[in-house]
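QA checklist item 7 of 12: single-chain prediction sanity check.
[x] sequence parsed
[x] length recorded as 316
[x] structure emitted
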Amino acid sequence: MRINLSPPLTGGRAFTVGLVTAWYSSNIGVLLLNKYLLSNYGFRYPIFLTMCHMTACSLLSYIGIMWMKIVPMQVVKSGVQLRNITILSLVFCLSVVGGNVSLRYLPVSFNQAVGATTPFFTALFAYIVSVTREAWIVYFTLLPVVTGVIIASGGEPSFHLFGFFMCISATAARAFKSVLQDILLSNEGQKLNPMNLLLYMAPITVLLLLPVTLYMEPNVVRITYDLAVEDKKIVWYLVFNSALSYFVNLTNFLVTKHMGALTMQVLGNVKGVVAVVVSILIFQNPVSVSGMFGYTLTVVGAILYNEAKKRNSNKT
């Protein structure tokens, strides 16, 4: 049976709520499980973990398209389209690996505070890629976004410079990915169904990560095998985490297609608030008053940015 993801089906309120809920649940679940594996459990191999994620995305996308016929198969139509998919894969590698590495050194709450600056980088890359110039009020609202992270950094008890660098790099890469992703999912000449985009992107990502994994995390397969012999739970952790990452990426693409890159980033900030609260309850990491103030300021700035951009768009 083929499921039609055409506008009449995807335009309803129930679909929107369900889509955002699925994205929130899978995203927060992967984030917390990544933190547990890389920090608390002691599985310190973020690049290999990312490669496991993308391997699952490759297999599950293929099954969904070729066997289950959820959506029709689409072919890459041009070299430009293939180039953009490859760039998207490379940027995705940087965003996920950077985010996973940062979780080894930073608590989830601070990781999400830095991630809330994504609208700043989204505006920057939107201007660079498509020369999209916004009104001055739109850029003005980015000041509390950046200021909030500066305050949160100074008030973070568990601040780690390398972890912060990896986190801010991952945030910038994630913003660039959302801009390029929006082009691939919306441009008539390059439009791909979200599942097809993931089908093409995931194997390229695995190929990009393989040599990096072998160089930076040697013997990780043997180490994982030996660990699995001692504790079989690690196998289930990796399998479940990898499968959940597929739903994160699929719902991420669907949210971008259905609501646009900017709205997705604002929804991501709300998701970040939920993730912060849940992570503090689970991991009991210390949080300072200034750190929470900085994070709140960043989220408020991101919301103001969205409203200013929306009003500016309506005027034009």
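[x] summary fact logged: The mean pLDDT is 82.
[ ] second reviewer sign-off
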